[in-house]
Each structure stands twice: as structure tokens, then as C-alpha cells.
């Protein structure tokens, strides 16, 4: 397996784990430009034999990606298949296996306006029919005896247990809704909001918009930035508590990429979707500018690894099971150790 070091952990850790089981995995460092990275990819494919090249369709940190047409052509020429992490690509641009020539795509339901816990892996079925079952249990088998097990072909082979029916239905509805949008409308909407965000953020002193490559083209509507001398968790807390703006802070389950971007202490991510307006983008830029000039309007402290308003008078919902969730998330996305 050949994978780049810019990937989300979901498209990195499984291959690292597979390598420990005596399957060879190479993590290829990205170069300083898209052109140089493609050249390094082609050189690696020429030097060593690979069964699979797996790449992001759009970075969950910067929105950038290598041109899929070039990746697919290089991999197929070398006899390798291509898997695309479409978690950020599918909801922002749409995706077609047939049009790109890629062999597999995986994407998440919650990025596609469905509930958490749903997702899909779509692609050539020979490997899916023959591969080790993802889960062992009821529904994945045709017949079980003490001395042998007959597994179902895909997709049942990998879907043991009671199915997430509501999640699957909601995911299908989300996909159909996105497909029904006027041709090109989603791309135009995303490009407009991204340009507006990047221009506004870069005009603020001390704000650095993160980019992997200076020559990348057609990034999706995901923008991350770092603010000099301000903890990203504090920036996110101020934007939320004082301006009603929800952003993500941390290392976004992409630690090697954040290190490559000189942001191992984390960053702030402001994403847009189908319903995001230009007014919302302007509110973000204005609020961040106010923070840089005036500082926080309230006093903040760190509780369980997360920045929060000190002695916050706002009531919290009493939801059983959520009392330690913030601390768990903070530990996973906090600064490098």
C-alpha cells in the first residue's frame, strides 16, 4: 500500500496497522509542490510494486488534493488500484468512480448531512468479496459449523450485526439531495465562500491560512488557519461563546500534516456547507478581527483540556454520558507530545 503523509488518520492508521501484520506500507512524504509530489509518486510506483494507492480526495485540513486523474493514471500504469478518501470531497464537489477511473471511494454520512455512524465504501467487488470480513457476526455468514464458516459476499460480508437502517436511509437521502442541486451550483457556491474567507483571513495581522502546496487547484470549502500568539482552542472558544460561531480547533486527526504545516500546536478550521452564507463568512472575519484588537471579552480557563468561559453562568444540558466527552476529544486533538 502506498499512502501520503497528508492523510486523515482514518486513511493512514489502518495501513500502518496492516504493515505490522507483515503487509508492506509506504508513507510517502509530500513535496513542496503538487508537481513535485506527483513526480515522487510516479518514481515510487516505478521503483516498487504496489497493489493499492490510497489518497484523499480533499484534505480535511486545507481542502487541497492531488489531481485525481493524474494519480489514477500513474497508479493504473504501475498495476495498482486507487482508493479515494472522499469524506470531504463527496459533500463539497460530488464524485464519480466511473468518471475518475478510481477503484474505490469511502465517505462519511455525517459529512453528507446524515447522522453520525453511517458511511459507505463503494468499489470493485472482487477484493470486497474475497477480503477478510470487517466484522464477524450474524448476517455476514451463509452457514456456520464448528469446523468451518461460509461467509457471504459483499456487502453483507462486512456488515455483521443489526444494520443501521436509519443511518443508511438518511445517507441515501443526503446524497440524492446533493445530486439534485443544479449542475455546478455547489462548486460555484463553495468557491465563492472560500475566496471570501481566505481573503478576509489573510487581511488580518498574525493570521496564517494553512496550505500544503502553492500550486494546488480547485480546493474545496475547508479552510484552516493559525493565529500568532493565540491558542487555537482559545480562539475557538471565543468565537463560540461571544459570537455564536462554531469552528473546529486542534490537529483534526491529521497530526503528520499539521507537523508538516508547522502547526503541531493545532489550528482553527472554518468549513462551509450547502447552507452557509456570505454573511456567515463575514461574521467570522469580523469576530476574529475584533479578538485580535480587543482580546476576549470574558475570562477563559482550561477545563479537562478545553478552553471555556470561567464561571460560565449559562446552564448546561444534563445529558448522561457526555460528561467526559470533551476531555476525550481534547486528548485526541491537542498539541503534539
Q: What's this model, at a glance?
A:
The chain has 337 residues and is α/β, with parallel strands linked by helices. It contains twelve helices and 14 strands.
What CATH architecture label of the largest domain applies? Alpha-Beta Complex
**Domain unit count:** 2
Strand content: 15-25%
Main-sheet strand order equals 2-1-3-4-5-6
Biggest beta sheet summary? 6 strands, mixed
Cα separation of the termini: 28 Å
Along the chain, the helix and strand elements come as EHEHEHEHHEEHEEHHEEHEHEHEEH
Low-confidence stretches: none
Q: Report the total helices.
A: 12
CATH homologous superfamily assignment of the largest domain: Aspartate Aminotransferase, domain 1
The tally of strands reads 14
Radius of gyration: 22 Å
Structural class determined from secondary elements: alpha/beta
Q: Averaged pLDDT, please?
A: 94
Quickly name the level 1 CATH class of the largest domain.
Alpha Beta
Helical fraction: 25-40%
Q: What fold name goes in the CATH topology slot of the largest domain?
A: Aspartate Aminotransferase, domain 1
Q: Categorize the overall geometry.
A: globular
Keyword list:
337 residues; alpha/beta; Aspartate Aminotransferase, domain 2; Aspartate Aminotransferase, domain 1; 6-stranded mixed beta sheet; 4-stranded antiparallel beta sheet
List the helices and strands and how they pair.
Elements: E1 2-4, H1 13-20, E2 26-28, H2 34-47, E3 52-56, H3 68-77, E4 81-85, H4 89-93, H5 97-100, E5 104-108, E6 119-123, H6 125-130, E7 141-145, E8 148-151, H7 165-179, H8 185-202, E9 207-209, E10 222-227, H9 232-243, E11 248-250, H10 255-260, E12 267-271, H11 278-294, E13 300-303, E14 306-309, H12 325-333
Parallel strand pairs: 1-2, 1-3, 3-4, 4-5
Antiparallel strand pairs: 5-6, 7-8, 9-10, 10-12, 11-12, 13-14
Helix pairs in contact: 2-3, 8-11, 9-11
Amino acid at each position: 500500500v502506498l499512502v501520503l503523509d497528508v492523510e486523515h488518520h482514518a486513511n493512514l492508521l489502518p495501513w500502518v496497522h496492516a504493515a505490522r501484520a507483515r503487509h508492506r506500507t509506504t508513507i510517502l512524504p509530500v513535496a513542496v509542490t503538487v508537481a513535485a509530489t506527483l513526480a515522487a509518486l510516479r518514481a515510487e510506483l516505478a521503483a516498487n510494486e504496489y497493489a493499492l494507492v490510497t489518497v484523499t480526495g480533499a484534505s480535511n485540513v486545507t481542502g487541497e488534493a492531488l489531481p485525481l486523474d493524474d494519480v489514477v493514471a500513474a497508479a493504473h500504469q504501475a498495476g495498482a488500484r486507487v482508493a479515494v478518501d472522499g469524506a470531504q470531497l463527496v459533500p463539497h464537489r460530488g464524485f464519480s468512480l466511473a468518471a475518475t477511473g478510481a477503484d474505490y471511494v469511502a465517505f462519511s454520512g455525517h459529512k453528507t448531512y446524515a447522522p453520525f455512524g453511517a458511511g459507505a465504501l463503494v468499489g470493485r467487488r472482487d477484493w470486497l468479496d474475497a477480503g477478510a470480513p470487517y466484522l464477524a457476526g450474524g448476517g455476514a455468514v451463509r452457514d456456520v459449523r464448528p469446523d468451518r464458516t461460509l461467509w457471504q459476499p459483499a456487502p453483507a460480508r462486512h456488515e455483521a450485526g443489526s444494520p443501521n437502517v436509519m443511518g443508511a436511509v438518511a445517507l441515501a437521502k443526503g446524497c440524492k439531495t446533493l445530486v439534485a442541486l443544479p449542475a455546478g451550483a455547489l462548486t460555484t457556491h463553495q468557491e465563492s465562500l472560500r475566496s471570501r474567507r481566505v481573503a478576509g483571513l489573510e487581511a488580518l495581522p498574525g493570521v496564517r491560512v494553512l496550505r500544503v502546496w502553492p500550486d494546488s487547484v480547485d480546493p474545496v470549502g475547508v479552510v484552516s488557519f493559525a493565529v500568532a500568539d493565540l491558542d487555537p482552542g482559545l480562539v475557538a472558544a471565543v468565537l463560540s461563546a461571544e459570537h455564536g460561531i462554531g469552528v473546529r480547533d486542534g490537529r483534526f486527526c491529521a497530526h503528520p500534516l499539521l507537523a508538516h504545516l508547522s502547526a503541531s500546536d493545532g489550528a482553527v478550521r472554518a468549513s462551509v456547507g450547502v447552507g452557509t452564507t456570505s454573511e456567515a463568512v463575514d461574521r467570522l472575519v469580523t469576530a476574529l478581527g475584533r479578538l485580535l484588537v480587543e482580546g476576549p471579552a470574558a475570562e477563559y480557563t482550561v477545563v479537562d483540556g478545553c478552553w471555556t468561559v470561567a464561571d460560565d453562568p449559562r446552564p448546561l444540558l444534563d445529558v448522561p454520558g457526555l460528561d467526559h466527552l470533551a476531555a476525550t476529544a481534547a486528548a485526541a486533538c491537542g498539541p503534539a507530545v
